[in-house]
Amino acid sequence: MMSAGVPNYFQMKKLSLLFLSLLAMPMVTRAQTPVYLDDTKPVEQRIEDALSRMTLREKINVIHAQSKFSSAGVKRLGFPDFWASDGPHGVRPDVLWDEWEQAGQTNDSCVAFPALTCLAATFNPDMSRLYGQSLGEEALYRGKSMILGPGINIYRTPLGGRNFEYMGEDPFLTSTMVVPYITAMQAKGVAACVKHFALNNDEEYRNNVNAIVSDRALYEIYFPGFHAAVKDAKAMAVMGGYNLYKSQHNCTNKYLLNDILKGEWQFDGVVVSDWGGVHNTDDAVLNGVDMEFGSWTDGLNWGVSNAYDNYYMADPYMKGIIDGKYTMEGLNDKVRRVLRLFYRTTMNRNKGVGFLCSDEHYYAAKRIGEEGIVLLKNDRHVLPIDTKRTRRVLIVGENAIKMMTVGGGSSSLKVQREVTPFDGLKARLEKDGVEVRYQRGYVGDVTGEFNGVTTGQDLTESRSAEQLIADAVEAAKTVDYVVFFGGLNKAEYQDSEGHDRKDFDLPYGQNSVVEALAEVNRNIVYVNISGNAAHLSFVKKVPAIIQGWFIGSQAGEALASVLCGDANPSGKLPMTWNNRLTDYAPHALGTYPGTWRDGKKEIIDQEYSEGIYVGYRWNDLKKIKPVFAFGHGLSYTTFRLSDLRLSAKEMTADETLTATVTIINTGQRAGAEVVQLYINDAKASVDRPYKELKGFQKVYLQPGESRDVTITIDRRALSFFDEAAHDWKAEPGVFTALVGNASDNLPLKAKFTLK
After folding, report:
1. Cα–Cα distance measured from residue 292 to residue 279, given in angstroms and rounded to the nearest whole number
2. Which of 29, 77, 204, 612 lies 20 to 30 Å from 250 when distance is taken between CA atoms?
3. pLDDT value of residue 15
4. What is the pLDDT of residue 87?
5. Taking a C-beta distance cutoff of 8 angstroms, is the pair 136, 188 a contact?
6. Core vs surface per residue 337-368: b (16+ CB within 10 A) or e
7. What share of the chain in percent tops pLDDT 70?
8. Residue 8 pLDDT greater than 80, yes or no
9. pLDDT of residue 306
10. Superfamily for 637-754?
11. Which pLDDT does position 305 carry in this prediction?
12. What is the Cα–Cα distance from 711 to 700, expressed in whole angstroms?
C-alpha cells in the first residue's frame, strides 16, 4: 500500500501527459480580449468584428444624433457616445441636450483663436499647424471628439456672410493652409470635419441656392481645398452644404458625395450632414451621408419621448431595411465609416492630452493674430506709433470696445477672456507714458447676445449720430494720433451666418466719421475689423490702413503689438479688395444671388458665369485695378527680391522644377516677407487666367540679412482640368514664372518649356 499523498507510477504518467498536452495548446486567457477591443489587431479587422456583434438597432443608433451635438455609441460593446462641437475658431459652449439654450456649465469657456481669414493671411503653414494643435487640445479637454471645421469655401463675393470663417479666394492658398491645421488637430485624436462641401459660397438663400458651375471651375477653384483635406491631410470627416448642386441638396448629393468624394477621391471617413441638411430618407440612404444631425429644432417634439428616433436615418431607415426597401450592405457601409471614426478618436488610446485656456493657447492666438494682421497702407511712415514722441492718442470707434467673440452664428464663443482693441492699445500706450482718450464716433449693433451667451457690455448710447461725430472731431484736434477701429461686426447681415451683407459700404455711417476725422488730424490710422472687404471712401485721405480681422481672445494685444511696432506686420491679403461691388465677377455679371426657378420661392438658380475667373483672376481678365491686391501686405522694413533663376530651362511631365530668388532685408527692422510665385501659360487650347498662385514661402530676416528662397513646382502647377477627359492636363509649351510679394507686384520673370 502506497503512502497517502504520494502519486504512483500511473498517476505520474497521467500528470506528465497532461502537462505535455497543455504545452502543446495555445495560451488562452480566461477572458480573452475580443478582436474589436484588441489594439494589436488591424483597425479594419476590429471594425468587422464590432460590426458582426452589433444589432440592427445599435447600427441605426450610431448614424444619427441623440442630442444637439452627440450620437450614440454602443454601450453594450464599450463604445462611448460621440461628441462633436462647433468651433472652427474655438470650442463652442455647451448647450442643453435638446435645445440651443446654454447648458449653464462653468467649465465650457475657451480661447477664441483668430478667424480663418486671419490664419490664411499669415501665408504661413507653421501658424496653421500651431492653430490645429491648440484647438485640438482645447477640444480634448472639453470631451469633444470632432470639431466642425475648418471651413474652406471660396471667397467669391465680398457680401458673403461667412467669408470670415474661410480662407480667402485662392484655391492654392486654401489647399496649402488647410493641411497642417487638420493634421495637427487629428494628431491629438480629434477629428476635423471639413465644411461645407461644396459651393457654399454665400449665405442668403443658402437652403435654396442651386449652384450652376462648370466642371472646370469646380475642379480648379472650388474642389482643391477639399481634395487636399481628404487626400493630403486625411480628414476624418466632411460636412455637406445646405445649398444644392445639380438640383440636389449637397448633404445628400449623389454626384458630390458618392461619385466624387467616396468614389474618385476614395474618402474613407464619415460624411456628416449640416444641421437640418437632410430632407428625406431615400436620399439620405442612397446618396452618401453617414451621420445625420439637427433635422429638427429639438429632440422633444412630435409628442414622443425621443424624437431623434424619427430622424430620416433613424426609425424610417430601420423600417425600410426590415421591409426590404433598403439593403443591409448600404447600412453596413455607413456603420463601418462611423466605427472607423470611433477608432480614430473615442477608441484611440494614444490620443493626446487636453488643455483648456492655457498660457500656450493664448500665446498661439496672439502670435497667429500678429502674423495675420495686414498693413495695407502706410504713407509718411505714420506707423508704427512712436511712443517716445507721442503724448496723446485718441481711439475712436465702436469696434474698439465691442467684444467680437459673441455672435456670428455657429462660430459664436464663450471666452474666458477677450482683450478688446481699446484695452490692448491703451495698456500698451500707457506703459510708455502716452495719454489715451476715447470717443465712440458711431453706434452700431448693441445687442451683445447669441444663444444665451452675453458679452455683459452695455453699449447703449444717448447721443445722436451728429453729436457723436462732432465730439470725436473736437477730441481729434488735440492729439498726436487718431486710431479708428471700425469695419463690420457679427450682427445679422454683416459678418454672420445665415445672411449675406446687403451692400458693400461700411455700415453705420463710418465713412463720414473717418472723413471728418481726417480733416482735422493728419496722423489718422484706420483699422478695419472684419472678414470682408468694404468700400472705403476715405482710402486716399487716410495715411495708414490696417486689416485687423476678427482675432479673438488676444485681439487687443495683437493689434497693439503691431500698431506700436513690437511686432512687424507680415500678413498678406487672402482676397482681392476692390473699389466697387461691380468690380467682383458675380455682381458685374448680375448672377448674384440668382433667379428663382419658375417664379417659385423653392430653388434659386445661381450661375457661376465667371467660371474660373474668381478674385484676382477676374481682375486680370478685366484689367481692374484693385484698391488692395490679393497677396498685398506691407512691412515696417523693406525687402528686395532679385536674381530669379530656374533649375532648368525645360522640364518633362514627370519632373519638377525649382525657382530660386535672393531676398534681402534692406531696412532697419527685423521682419518677414512672403515670396510668391505665380505661373503664366503663354498659349493653351483653353482660356487660362493670366496668372495663378502656385507657390509661396514666408521668410524671416534680420536687417541686412539675405537668403535664397527656393520654391518647387511640378506638372500639376502647370495643369488645367480637361472637361472632355475628366482629368488634369498639362500641355507642352512655354510657361513663365512670375515672382514677387503681391499679385500686382511680380517684377521677376523667367520662361521655361514643358516638353
Report:
1. 10
2. 612
3. 44
4. 83
5. yes
6. bbbbbbbbbbbbeebeebbbbeeebbebbbbb
7. 94
8. no
9. 65
10. Immunoglobulins (2.60.40.10)
11. 56
12. 16
CA atoms of 680 and 348, how far apart (whole Å)? 46
Which one, of 184, 180, 217, 176, lies nearest residue 198 by Cα?
217
Query: What is d(CA 147, CA 497) in angstroms, rounded to the nearest whole number?
Result: 17
Q: Which three cell numbers stand for residue 217?
A: 471651375
What is the DSSP secondary-structure string of 570-617?
Answer: ----SS-B-SSGGGSHHHHTT-SS-EEGGG-SS-EEEE-TTTT--THH
CA distance 556 to 8: 90
User: By C-alpha distance, which of 700, 491, 591, 535 is closest to 213?
Assistant: 591
Active-site annotation holder among 86, 170, 202, 274: 274
Q: For the CA atoms of 271, 276, 279, 283, what is the dihedral angle to 10 degrees?
A: 0
272 Cα distance to chain centroid: 17
Residues in the chain, overall count: 755
If DSSP codes are grouped into helix, strand and coil, which group holds residue 248?
strand
Structure confidence by residue, pLDDT tens digits, 243-263: 999 999 999 999 999 999 999
| CA quadruple 716, 698, 187, 370: dihedral sign | negative
**Shortest CA distance to 168 belongs to which of 219, 206, 224?**
224
Neighbours of 540 (CB within 10 A): 11
In this predicted structure, what is the pLDDT of residue 316?
95
CA angle 361, 365, 368 (to 5 degrees): 130
Domain 35-99+106-344 CATH assignment equals 3.30.300.230: no
The answer to whether residue 643 is catalytic is no
User: Cα-flanking dihedrals φ and ψ of residue 280, to 5°?
Assistant: -165, 160
446 has a pLDDT exceeding 80: yes
Confidence of residue 304 (pLDDT cuts 50, 70, 90): low
- At 575, list the grid cell: 482676397
Contact 488, 410 (CB under 8 A): no
For residue 624, give the 3-state DSSP assignment: coil
The stretch 555-577 carries a mean pLDDT of 98
Q: Which residues sit opposite 358 in a β-bridge? A: none
- Domain 373-567 carries which CATH code? 3.40.50.1700
3-state secondary structure of 262: helix
DSSP state of 290: -
d(CA 7, CA 623): 104
Sign of CA dihedral 616, 618, 620, 626: negative
DSSP state of 67: S
* b/e burial code for range 299-315 (CB count within 10 A of at least 16 → b): beeeeeeebbbbbbbbb
pTM: 0.94
What angle do helix axes 224-231 and 171-186 make, rounded to 10 degrees?
Answer: 30
CA angle at residue 139 from 134 to 141, to 5 degrees?
100
- Could you tell me which residues are beta bridge partners of residue 272? 239, 291
**CA–CA gap between residue 317 and residue 305 (Å, rounded):** 19
> What ranges do the domains of the chain cover?
35-99+106-344, 373-567, 637-754
Which residues face 513 on adjacent strands? none
